[in-house]
Amino acid sequence: MSIGKDLVAASATPLVLAILSEGESYGYAIIKRVEELSGGELQWTDGMLYPVLHRLERAGYLEATWGKSESGRRRKYYRLTQEGEAELAEQRRQWQVVDATLRGTPFHRREMIPQGT
Amino acid sequence: MLEERIAEWRDHVGRREAIQAGDLDELEDHLRSQVSDLQAAGLDPEEAFLIAVKRMGALDALSREYAREYSERLWKRLVIPPGTAGEGWNREATVAVALAVAAGVAIKIPELFGIRWDGQAGTLWFAQNVSLLILPFLAAFLGWKRALPARGWAGLAGGFVAGALVVNLMPFQPEGYTMTLAIIHLPMALWLALGVAYTGGEWRDPRQRMNFVRFSGEWFIYYVLIALGGGVLMGLTMLLFEAAGLDAEPLVARWILPCGAAGAVLVAGWLVEAKQSVIENMAPVLTMVFTPLFTLLLLAFLGTVAWTGSGINIEREVLIAFDLLLVVVVGLHLYAISARDPQAEPGLFDKLQFLLVVCALLVDAMALWAILARITEFGFTPNRTAALGENLILLVNLVGAAVLYVRFLRVRRGVASMERWQTGFLPVYLLWAAVVVVVFPVIFGFM
Questions:
Q1: B428 within some domain
Q2: Secondary structure class of A7 (helix, strand, coil)
Q3: A83 touches chain B (CB under 8 A)
Q4: What is the ipTM of this complex?
Q5: Helix, strand or coil, per DSSP, at residue B358
Q6: Most C-beta atoms within 10 A of its C-beta, which of B12, B145, B272, B325?
Q7: pTM of this structure
Q8: Strands A62-68 and A25-26
Q9: Is B41 in the same domain as B20?
């Protein structure tokens, strides 16, 4: 199973914010973390993460600083800001609403009701 | 090996306008992390690199995402040429600005000898010499940039000196016909001579000549744009000082206007050079817009002449209008083929161009007929002879262009031969302009 494109896109913001709420990180590590958390089910096209990070940075949810990697390369680190924390809470509320709504529908029951019966 | 591949990849990705150096560093860091993880898992460097690049995603999609996030970057590039950080750019800018200042100073030097462009005799002197004062600096810039060989420098210098001697030492009748013709044709001849500097001495190469044509068109557009901005600047200068109770007009008329106009020649040339790969060239775009309009104009004119059945009236102003019109048509044709993808099939636009050329041919034939009638009736004058020569040259040019177009529309190839035909005419124009400047006064007794 692989997750559809729309859902990947929709989940990118809360995932990035949530992972960064664990502490400062950088692009490659974030992708590794997503893979690890989803058991490899959630696969991003690696490059696409960066425009998302930049969008969140410009929105003020993240703060970026240039640092060095363990091997001395230039590496850009991202950290959650206060606004980012608030946005994360807001995203959580929204996802909970979606989740709760889905729970009330046949979507969430073990056996789906066959059509026409 | 791996380093090489990564450098190539970086270079490739970096060509996208929306992705800038900082983004590249970030993406490279990602790529390297991925590669070293994959290598640690047992892959060889080559495989690891290929997989890492694949995982990065399609470059088009990626640059689209960046462009959506940073739409302003696509615009900023218009202001900051690529490789601005490079040393070469700075040096080129420095040279260009220094030469622009020099041109601005050069235009004021005659004043030390009492020749003022807004004075009685000065206006005429400046009309004769203005191109000789400014264009050498542009020639110097282009020649410097293209590392023009010594022979090219000598030829150019010779051309400028000869031009200066001819217009200043020949015993013209003040404000006579031959002098007016010389004043008009000298800048044209000198500009075409700039082609030697622009092509770095390889002026025989048709592709280089075409590049010079492109340069000329873009230069003209930049110059007009700078002139518009300069007009606003001067207007505001006068208004502001007027508010302060001072009359700024002498300052504007004696300093800002002449020095600015001279310096802008260099600045426009430098901008075209610095930006040729950045912006979509403007001249072909304007060509696309104006080809249908000029075709309509010519069709309407031909229709009117056919309807009324009257021949055309050849007054001096009308003659100039005809020549200008034909020059514009040849220019449209030239820029249309300069921007054409040689591989593309002939399309609607080519047919329109063909129609335009044929209409121009008819108009040119009519004009020639009228000029010849006039000459047989009243004899040769400098103006008529100049018009005759120019119309003949354009007639030959347009006939050739029409024939080549027919072949192109039929057999679907031959863009290159159209290009060669047009670029082959550049020396003819230069030669004719030189003849009008140098030979006409002698033949017509400086009248």
A1: no
A2: helix
A3: no
A4: 0.85
A5: helix
A6: B272
A7: 0.70
A8: unpaired
A9: yes
